[in-house]
Amino acid sequence: MAARAICCRRAAALALALLLAACSAPPPTATAVVATARPQPTVTTAPPTAVPAPRVLTICLENEPASLYIFSEAGRGWNHVQEALRDGPIDRRGFGRQPVILERLPDWENGDVTLDSVVVEPGAGLVTADGDLDRLAAGVPYWTPEMERALGRADKAITTIQMRITFRLRDDVRWADGAPLTADDSVFGFEIGSAAATPGSKLAAWRTASYRASAAHTITWVGQPGYYPADVLEHLAEPLARHAYGDLDAAQLLTDEQANRAPLGWGAFQVAQWEPGLLRLVRNKYYFRAAEGLPRVDEVHFVPLADESAALSAVAGGECQIAVRDSWDAWEDSADALLAAQSSGQLA
């Protein structure tokens, strides 16, 4: 930053008056009057405050995604971007999982997972002991409340299991536009994800009897009779901002410009610019973990590259700090080059 010179200016004025008498009178003595300028205060101009350059993390992708909408199958590489836009909801660390936008993980010990008994009449729907969605009939296998395998009869109701899971959201999480993230947003995500127009498996929806907001930040999931999930956490539906997209149906969301190009999230970053060759994310000022000093950088730039050779060259040349591919298999052909670059100090 260049420094400015500080200068002060002084002004002086000299006035000389000569009074002349009549030509017959003797000339009077001339008196000089000097006006002395007042000292002017020194004005100091403060140098402008330096604006620090943003801290930027550049990540090279194999391909540029065609969409950032969470239910879109268009494009590859968007999962890496979603980590920046949507924090969690649950993170995997090592062999365990940690709640991100949940107050806690539901389990048997804290009472957020319970198993009830329910009566199913012949012909009514249930999930069989083999995990299939079926109707109760003779020979259909089911679980008793004692978790014993039994077979249904054509003329008799049965008593089977029904699981209930409670998910408790943090109340300090906000969308990137400042609106609070609520249980109803998760319900909206479940509704859109379950719609026929939305790509992807509907197995989780078929195994769900009800998914509702039981309080502002509490979600209650109830499974179909007979269903015993192997992983209770898989039944938390990814939140989708109802206040932003609630007037669109599942089919419209697949083509909506804002939902696909700059989707609203709650993560550390939000989309600021997307043009061919560059996807630029900037800090989300409403990020709920900002008080922890997160995120550590101001911007994240995603740069698509043609192949792994270009990615390696970009990392070695300092054009990007991280290079990612969709699978480890994609790097196998470059394993020797990667190890050599690491040994030489080009890669960490």
CATH superfamily of one domain: Periplasmic binding protein-like II
Main β-sheet, in a few words? Answer: 5 strands, mixed
Strand content: 15-25%
Number of strands: 17
| Run of helices and strands | EEEHEEEEEEEEHHEEHHHEEEHEH
Helix content: 10-25%
The CATH architecture of one domain can be given as 3-Layer(aba) Sandwich
**Which residue ranges are poorly predicted, with pLDDT under 50 across at least 5 consecutive positions?**
1-36
Classify the fold: give the CATH topology of one domain. D-Maltodextrin-Binding Protein, domain 2
Average pLDDT level:
85
Write the layout of secondary structure elements.
Layout: E1 15-17, E2 31-33, E3 56-61, H1 78-85, E4 90-93, E5 96-99, E6 113-120, E7 125-127, E8 133-135, E9 141-143, E10 149-151, E11 158-168, H2 183-194, H3 203-206, E12 208-215, E13 218-223, H4 242-245, H5 250-253, H6 257-261, E14 269-275, E15 278-283, E16 299-304, H7 308-316, E17 322-323, H8 335-343
Parallel strand pairs: 3-16, 3-17
Antiparallel strand pairs: 1-2, 4-5, 6-11, 7-8, 9-10, 11-13, 12-13, 14-15, 15-16
